[in-house]
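Hi there, hope your week has been kind to you so far. For a while now I've been wondering how a particular protein folds. I'm sending you its amino acid sequence along with the C-alpha cells. Could you read through the record and tell me how the C-alpha cells relate to the sequence? Take your time with it, there's no hurry, and the full record follows here.
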Amino acid sequence: MVLDSEDCQAAPAPGLHLAFRPVHDVITGRVFAYEAVLRGPAGEEGEEILAQLPADRHAELDRRVAAGAVYKAMEAGLGATTARLLIPIHAPHAGAAETALAAAADAGRRTGLATERLIFGIHGFADTPGQQLADLVERHRRAGALTAFLGLGYDPIGFSPCVRYRPAMVRLDSELVNGIDASWARRLMLEELAPRLREHGIRVIADGVAREAVLQRLRSFGIFHVQGDLVAPPVPGMLPPTRIPRPAATA
C-alpha cells in the first residue's frame, strides 16, 4: 500500500508517492492551499492507481493517503505557512464518510495541523450516491474541514450535485479551462457557470492554467483561485512556491 499506517513514512511499495502543488490566490498573491497528489512509479494518477486495486482496498487507499498527506506536508513545512492542505478522496463511495477524515485528523493531532486547515477534495463526485456525498460534506463541516468537488467539466450533470450538496469549493476540470483564451464555446460556458456557483456560496478553483492569457480570462470571470503549470507543477515531498508574482500592493 502507499503509506505505512504506523509511522506514515513513504512506503515505496511499489513506488507510489505523494507530490504537492499549490492552489494560488491571485488576489492576495499567496498560496491558498497545497494539494496532495498521488502518483505511481510511471507517473500514474490517483484514478489509474485506484483502478489497479481490488475494490475492498479502495477505502484503505484513501485512509492512508489522507494520513500520509498530513505527515508529509508538515515535514515539508506546511506548519510554517497559512496555507490549507487539500487531501484527495479517490473512492468516496467505498467506505464510511469518516474514514479519511479520521486518519487525517489523527495525523493532524500528532503534528499540530488543525482540522480547520484541511480540505477534502472528492474525485468522481458526480458518480457518487447522493446520500454519501451529503454525509461527506456534513461530516467534514462538523469537524471544521472544508469539502471540494473536483473535476466539474462540460457534463451538465455535474452541476446539480454541486448546488444540492453545497461543497465549499468546486474545481473546474483542466480540459474545460485550458484554451479558454482561444475557445468561444468554453468562454461562454465559464461566463455562465462561475457566477451560478458563486450565487450558491461555492468558491471556484480553475485547474489547467498554463498561460498568462488563460489566467487573465479567468480573472475577468471572477475566478481567482488557480492551479496548473503557470502556478507550479507537482513536486514530490516538497511544497513548491507559486511562480505567479505577488501584486505590488501585497508584496
Remarks:
- Confidence is low (pLDDT under 50) at residues 1-13.
- The beta strands are 17-25, 30-39, 84-89, 118-122, 146-152, 169-172, 203-206, 225-226, 235-236.
- The longest helix spans residues 58-75.
- DSSP finds eight helices and nine strands in the chain.
